[in-house]
Amino acid sequence: MKAEKLALIMDVAQGKAPADLIIRNARVVNVFTKQVEEMEVAVAAGTIAWVGKPDPDKPRPAAVVYDAGGKFLIPGLIDAHCHIEMSFMSPIPFVKTVLAHGTTAAILDMHDVCNAGIECMHSFARELACTPLNSFLMIPPCVPGTPTLEEAGAEMTLKDMQEAMHLPNAWGIAETMDFNRVLDREPEIMSILAWGQEQNLRIDGHCPELVGDDLQAYLATGILTDHESVSLPEMLEKYRLGMKVILRRGSLEEPVRAGDFVAALADTTNVLLATDGCIFLDDILDNGHMNRALQAIVSEGVDPITAIQMGTINVARAYGVDHHIGSIAPGRRADMVLVSDLKDFDVEAVFLKGKQFDAGTFSIPPYNHPREVLNTIRMGKVTPEAFAIKTPITSGEVEVRVMTIIAGTVATREEHERLPVINGLLQPDVNRDLLKVAVFDRYREGGNHALGIVRGFGLKKGAFGGSVGQDSQNLAVVGSNDDDMALVVNTIREMQGGIVFAVDGRIVAQVSLPIAGIMSAIEPRELQQQFKKLHQSLAEMGSKQDNPSFDLSLLLTCAVIPELKITNRGLVDALSGEFVPLLLE
User: Fold this and answer.
1) Do 456 and 482 have their domain in common?
2) Which terminus of the chain, N or C, has fewer Cβ atoms within 10 Å?
3) Is 328 within a domain?
4) 189 in helix, strand or coil?
């Protein structure tokens, strides 16, 4: 900022010059004192210049006066851990959508897009830099998420990490999700973490069910946060050891009530709030984003002002930007949100650098990604024979491991079932919701693929698949028969990314996701309608899932979240990090 601009801001603070904007009649939430007071806020050059009581005899001049009508003015909300890609929107439409809900900043993990290719991540960062979202990019160290268990479109090295730190808004190292690599002292991940410490970078964590000495060894590498705890004792242990514990609230059920966690703490400074990207497109568009995360934890018993701290100043302090954002105070960027109350947090107005955001007129020119970002599916065509599961017997039954989706969560559990064998081949059973699942390496001609059995999709006929299998973003397909599964895979290949549903040799519905094979740049409402048609078609064939596309993306292939998962190399016990056979006998 130039000295002249600083001088102008100081003049406005002292009442010597008119403000660009004054917000009057606002109940301002002070995240430092946890007080709510009726105050005025003056803005100059995109910066908050003054916050104080009005003088009725000498009103401060301003180019624009906004009457808040007694509503609550809170700092712009900061998502403490977010994956844009999980919304299936590319950065520009995503930002347009969440700004309207008061999310003005985010700590963004680019793990998903990086798995599709290093250049995909670079192009993603450049598109994001075209938007007004205050972004802090975290570079993923674990790509593939589990390199001994899967292939992906990239393999993150220390050199890649160092180069990525030159991207616009790069800020730190993203979630170190393969904690077994850390505990095993695997050389590449250790070199990345050591370099991060040398550079004084923030390093995010991801360590479900990690406790005791192993947790302390993990933290000794400089890891700062965790958002994956599954019990209250685990959260408290991590908090006592200095971790920033991130509460995730979105469209999924969480294992611990926020109120129970907060009630066990004497101080909540190191509790942060995030969506983690685990929020459906429908929910973002129709219900909100970080404002709904606030609503959720308040409904779970957290004091509203404490909740606001978790989504503003606590995040800003954790990532070293509290001098810049996270509060309504002089010298901070004038990102503020006017909400109806401190229970529902319905957004009345959003201010970005002191200018009111208008979703109706907001526009950013389209970003043109390079060809390699739009052509990430390099696998060859498949035949129905690729889905045959051979058994050691020619007829009868065999016992198999079943990956069962736990509805409304990010987890699965392992179950065992007996399935029929005909002519030496394992058969699915749609009447018991036991379908075939396959995962293909989509980045290489003739790459590995693996087969398994899944319960939870409920399809009576057809096949459903997409190029969206986290974390590798490999191609996953679920189906009742081999012919439709092959049709789905080959259609996605021809589309260069998307989600497809086929029945009886016919494509019933599809959604194109051409950017890295996982995102679309079309208008969010149009994208929503395409997904609605897809999900309605699935429901007509027996699916009872709230969001089948999200389950396809997250629940099957993410080999770092318990319990049983599948990658392009085989079935994985996510807790041990070991392959397990499909057949039990």
Assistant:
1) yes
2) N
3) no
4) helix
